[in-house]
Write a structure and sequence with these properties.
globular; Nucleotidyltransferase, domain 5; 5 helices
């Protein structure tokens, strides 16, 4: 059983999978942040399927890019659950998760990064990175003949499916994929 979490952006989701078979994915929205609702939502999802936390064999989490706070909340929650249960953790970028939902030999997942920029990358159909994740204005991204995939769908299930195929690692080995410096870092370097 896999529990997958994606709270990197304004709308997030959690998913419960048996291998690559999706049992349920639940949309999460919280204008005040996901920190105060995430564990309750996980508890409700597991209870709805009568799955105890101890039955989860792999945790999976979207590692970003996205909201710095959202990325940290998801990563901290997933690492905490994995450490507490002694189970492995798989980290998957939400760009890769979005690419897995696309078609064609080259896929360019694109997310709004605000400030006139996008997060983007290019993957092949086996999800190998062709152009690593970047943040830039859309018109500067080298799309080429890659098929553009815009954000929109919930991604926890896709994160979980990729994790099911790859397996996990020790939770301490999973880190965030920020792509750009935080506002605090930008303010510190400009002063």
């Amino acid at each position: 059983m896999i529990l997958a979490i994606d709270v990197c952006n304004e709308v997030g989701s959690i998913a419960l999978l048996s291998g690559t078979n999706l049992l349920e994915e639940r949309r999460l929205e919280s204008p005040d942040g996901f920190g105060h609702i995430l564990f309750g939502a996980i508890e409700e999802l597991l209870a709805a399927h009568q799955v105890p936390l101890s039955a989860i064999t792999l945790f999976a989490v979207a590692t970003g890019p996205g909201s710095f706070t959202g990325v940290r909340i998801g990563l901290t929650a997933a690492k905490g659950l994995a450490f507490a249960t002694g189970k492995p953790l798989a980290g998957v970028t939400n760009l890769e998760a979005l690419a897995s939902l696309g078609e064609g030999p080259l896929r360019a997942p694109i997310f709004d990064a605000r400030r006139g920029d996008v997060y983007a990358a290019i993957y092949d159909d086996a999800l190998n990175v062709i152009v690593p994740p970047v943040v830039c204005p859309l018109e500067e991204f080298p799309l080429g003949n890659a098929r553009r995939i815009d954000a929109g769908p919930l991604l926890a299930a896709a994160v979980g499916r990729i994790a099911a195929q790859r397996g996990g690692v020790h939770p301490a080995a999973v880190d965030a994929t920020y792509v750009r410096p935080s506002d605090a870092e930008l303010l510190h370097t400009s002063s």
